[in-house]
Structure formats: structure tokens, C-alpha cells
Amino acid sequence: MNYKVSTVHIFFKETINITGSKSETNRLLLLQALFPAIQVENISNSDDAVVMQKGLASDSSVVDIHHAGTAMRFLTAYFAGKEGSNVLLTGSARMKERPIKILVDALNSLGAEITYANTEGYPPLHIKGKKLTKSEVTLPADISSQYISALLLLAARLENGLELTLIGKITSIPYIEMTLALLNEVGIKTKFEGNFIKVYPVKEEVEPTTLVVESDWSSASYYYSIVALAEVGSQITLTSYKQNSLQGDSALASFYKEMGVSTVFDANTLVLTKETDEVKNVAFDLTKTPDIAQTIAVTCFGLGIGCELSGLHTLKIKETDRLEALRVELTKLGAIIKVTDKELFLQPSTHFNENVAIDTYNDHRMAMAFAPLTIKVPLIINDAMVVSKSYPDFWEDMKLLGVDVIV
Ligand SMILES: O=C(O)C1=C[C@@H](OP(=O)(O)O)[C@@H](O)[C@H](O)C1
Ligand SMILES: C=C(OP(=O)(O)O)C(=O)O
Known about the structure:
- The chain is of the alpha/beta class.
- It has helices at residues 22-34, 47-57, 69-80, 101-109, 145-155, 173-185, 217-229, 252-257, 293-303, 322-332, 364-370, 394-400, and strands spanning 3-7, 15-17, 38-41, 62-64, 86-90, 113-116, 125-128, 136-140, 162-167, 190-193, 196-199, 209-212, 235-239, 261-266, 269-274, 282-285, 307-310, 337-339, 344-346, 356-358, 379-381, 403-406.
- Helix 1 (22-34) packs parallel to helix 3 and helix 9 (293-303) packs parallel to helix 11 (364-370).
- The termini are close together.
């Protein structure tokens, strides 16, 4: 379904309630499966969290996690360590192009029995669950942090815990820190020093604990973009956020400060205000925050400023090749943009081509990153319901703000 999206006037009275972080949710769902004393509140309503829940509850011989990278990686570790399980873990056509060899090699070296159903190095996987007895593994850390998080989540259930040695420059490090912080919150001890991580085994059970998932910061990025592109004085309130977030994308507050948006925490809400139109070109390293690259690139285009974004080496293996998708779609709108395999360079320009239909490439973040641009120019967003991967209510929430969405 394609949506025609335009904005005459944004209403800033609404408070938007975004559901829990999909990253925190999928970690806690896995921990809850391993340690039933854990309770989780404010879980994400994203497709990725739904497939994770279904995968964990499944007793079928085939588990399909569609487009969900975290579910693919976390369930690979889960089934590998679950004695007696025998599953084919599969996903969407794109998931079959997203590499998983580093994780499979690491698990197999710990004693797992995982083989490739089609292509070496890629899903689908045949997984025979076994008791994993080894406790030391070395793996590359520069491709995806999800391989590391998957191992860490399983680690506390291994009889001797787990010691990881990471090779190469660690990418998306806040996601590893989030995993360790959640382990700590349920009472599991960990150590992270340089390129070495240790998770101590749980001898008995963890104490009963209820964790409340903070709302999703990656989803908040689209509101930062809307406020940045709106008139000075515009304001949006989002619930439920914490000042000391476990989510690396909370760095949005400092990135968008440079783009004229202030952030104030008021109790558990986040108040975003457009302070100024005086903004200059920006240069950001997004190695720690890959999921907000699309939002930032589109905001800069809408503001008429240039940007140099670096640390984008993981974008090619996400839901689509996000660097190429940004280049093609921003060029349609009139942008002068260049991408390499890890950087994006956008020149300042204030002209927007009209009547453009944005292709979304099965990537939720393509649809959501371009939506705020309707404040400047009406757009068609092709295959608009792709947003459900992380934020099923996105278009309903846009309507609350006054964005005109025509199916
Ligand atoms: O662990 C996680 O929850 C995630 C880690 C990141 O992936 P990479 O580590 O592959 O960059 C991020 O892009 C993804 O959306 C969620
Ligand atoms: C990259 C993403 O998700 P995943 O890797 O979990 O599919 C994302 O949500 O932007």
C-alpha cells in the first residue's frame, strides 16, 4: 500500500506514546525464556518483538522470523543451547542475504551443531540443540554487535559462563553495553574490559525481578526530525523515557542540539523543542548509532544543510543496503549526495523536487525517515506499512500530529 503524505500544519499539543524499545524487548524476552523468574513490562509491539515471542514459544520444526535481525541472531544462540531442540530457523528473502557465519562459527566452536540449509554463511540454519560445555570463544566484532549480544544472552545459562575475546574495531558498542546492563539488572555478573567480556554463570536461579522497558529511542528519532524541520517554538512530548538510557540512540539529544532542537526530560517524558533556524553543516560519526543515520541524512536535506556522516560500514547489511537506498531516494528529491561503503556526503541545497514517490525497499526506516520531510514537500511513500517492523502505530501517530496521510 502506498501512502500520499502531506503536512499543512503540525499540531504540537499531542503527547505521543511510543512502546518499549525493540532491542531491550528482544533481549528480555530471551532472558525470560532462560530465567522464568523475570517479568517484563512495556514490551515493544513491533513485528520484530512478535516474531521473537512466537519463536521462543514455538514447538514447530520451522521457525520463521521474517525480517528481524535480532530475533535471527538471538534465537540461533537460544536453540543451539536448548538440549533436544531441532529446528530450521529461517526468515525473509533479505534475511537470507544477511551474514551469520561469525555467530555460527562461534557457537559451533563452543560445541553447538548448526549447519546451513542453503548457502554457507547465511540463513536458513538447521540447529540441533545441545548442552554447550566450552566457555571461551574469539570472534570478530566489526560486522555486527548482534552476534556478541546473542552469545552474551545465552552465556549465564552455560555451566561455566562465557569469556569472549573480540577482534577488530567493536561496532555498535552501546548495544553490547545494553545487553550487559540488562544481565546486571537481573542479577547476572559481567565484566567488559577492552576487547574482553566475561559473563559469570548463574548457579541457581535469578531473583524474581520485573523490568520496565524504556520506550524506543530509534522511533523517537522521527519526532526529532519533525521538530527540526518545523517552525521555531514547535514542541512535541514523548513518553516514557529515562535520562540514563540503556539505548545508544539516546545520543539523538546531542546530535539534534546541533540541528536546532533542545531536549528536556520532565518526569518520564521527553520534551523536544525547536529553538533556532540558525543551523550549520554537520559532521557525525555514527559507529555507535547506525539506526539513526537515515533520519539524520533526511533531516539535513530538509534543513538545507550539508552533512558528512561516517561510521556507516554496517548499513549495507541491514534491512536493505541503506547507503544506496538513501543515495537513490534523496537524489530523486534533488539532493547532491555521494556515498562510499562507510560514509555519506550531502551538499547543502534548498530545492525540493515535487511529486516524488519514495521507495522503501522493505526497510521500515526508509519510510519513517522520509515522512518528516512532508513538512517541506508532499511525498508518496511506497509500501508504507513496512513501518510495522519496529513501529506499527507510526502512521496513526503521524495523523495525531496533523500529518495528512491518504491511502
Ligand atoms: O542489538 C540490537 O538490538 C541491534 C544492534 C544493531 O545492529 P548491528 O550491531 O548489526 O549494527 C542495530 O542496528 C539493530 O537495529 C539492533
Ligand atoms: C537494523 C535493524 O534491525 P535488525 O538488524 O534487528 O533487523 C533496525 O531496526 O534498524
